[in-house]
Design goal:
about 150 residues, alpha+beta, six-stranded antiparallel β-barrel
């Protein structure tokens, strides 16, 4: 399979730029699929730099739920490793921007949220199978900071 990471990086950069330029009017919702995306700005655990990545999410009250699928790769995504080291971040969901704190969902909460994620984005179940049990995909709860 050819390496298409450069194409994914280009698409991500374009999505991020359009999302910000339109205050989330374009890029927040994908109506045909009923998908929602947010922009997560987090701090690099080694570099200390700010990074912003678009992620699909499901709402859970005032919280946002994302999954560290990394498209089923054996390694977790960098953004999740960064949040584990520094859980404070910022989120833009549509026009809403707020300071948040991320945490890993576990137990019954994870099971409930995982079901909601898979109901919205069926590929997550495929990604989890693709890991062949090498890791459980992290279900991450992103909550507004007080």
């Amino acid at each position: 399979m050819p390496n298409v990471r450069w194409l994914l990086a280009l698409i991500t950069a374009l999505h991020r730029w359009i999302y910000r330029a339109t205050s989330g009017v374009i890029g927040h919702r994908i109506p045909i699929l009923d998908w929602r995306s947010l922009l997560l700005t987090h701090t690099g655990r080694k570099s200390g730099r700010l990074y912003t990545i678009p992620l699909l999410y499901v709402p859970d009250g005032e919280r946002f739920v994302v999954v560290g699928s990394n498209a089923g790769d054996a390694k977790p995504p960098e953004w999740w490793l960064n949040l584990q080291a520094r859980p404070e971040a910022r989120v833009q969901a549509g026009a809403l921007e707020l300071a948040v704190r991320a945490r890993l969902a576990a137990g019954e909460e994870r099971a409930r949220l995982w079901a909601a994620l898979v109901a919205n984005y069926r590929d997550y179940a495929r990604y989890e199978r693709k890991t062949r049990g090498s890791r459980e995909l992290p279900v991450v709860v992103v909550e507004p900071r007080a």
